[in-house]
Amino acid sequence: MSVPFMELSDSYDLIYEEVMEKIKKLIDDTRFVGGEEITKFEEEFAVYCNVKNAVSCGNGTDAIMIALKALGIGSKDTVITVPHTFIATAEAVTAVGAEVDFVDIDEKTYTMSPEKLEEYIQKNKDNKNIKAIIPVHLYGQMADMPELMKIADKHNLKVIEDSAQAHGAQINDKGPGEYGDFATFSFYPGKNLGAFGDAGALVTNNDELARKAKMLSNHGRYNEKYTHQIEGYNSRMDSIQAAVLRIKLKYLDQWTDMRIKNAEKYDELLKDEDIITPFVRDNSKHVYHLYIVRVNNRDELKNDLESNNISVGIHYPIPLHLQPAYNYLNYERGDFPVSETLSEEILSLPMWPEINDNAIISVGEKINEL
Fold first, then answer.
1. pLDDT of the residue at 223
2. Inter-residue contact 145 to 180 (CB < 8 Å)
3. What does pTM read for this prediction?
């Protein structure tokens, strides 16, 4: 049985007519930038995230950059994140002129280790101007925000939650944006809430930070076309993307429940002691943007599955500290052992809301067989 890694078209049948009707109206009205669709999406997404403000922007990378700029972070400031993430998390830091550095991850949840964070701060607080942390909510599970916030509060650090893979996730009944100064989101098409192109957003409970973010995303202006309070960027969400996201947002909880059910099915099938399935932290809601397993023979298993027409992925094969782009930080193999080990063992299995039981069973049985 052939199983794709992801099938975006499965969800489109449900919303196709509604989306096409909305897009036709926007074309007829020639309303492509700004307008009611943007305003309504920001209002509705803020409600969904249980925060006061949402600010739309061009993509998830821009969202992190805008958050950093709104918080006043720049030259000679250090921002700490993790090496086990997509490069967007780190490159946004250097894009605003700050210095990025890393701490290792927790071995069970694959998110920022509070212990490693505290250790880093104690070691570097006298020689680095540490201003912020960017915990990454990875694969659908939030980082340990209660513990990370204790450390951030203790050391007066700003907190930006990279939530590109965590739409609807929770820890202790609170979601992204309810802990940090900002949470940032990507709506890349493959995300749990995906647009029909690039789009992003920031959410915050701080009205002044929201106002700054709004200005930064739109050439430094706020409600006056030719009055620019500050220098900003051109990072606006298109109206068509906002319209699509408004429609899809109505179905997000339903799709999330389907993802959780699919993950439970995988859990039931993958009982072999040599396969490590996703660990879910107590009092957490994991939304399974990706379903990740760990195996010692990852590359062999990947090749065997692909030869049987089962598509899989690796997220991520090279930790950031070993990427050529960060050679200047002078890290070596062995500096972040958990991230390095994980990069050699993880495998992303097919996962999307509508994947059927037969496909999951086929994948699970083939893994057990191999």
1. 84
2. yes
3. 0.97
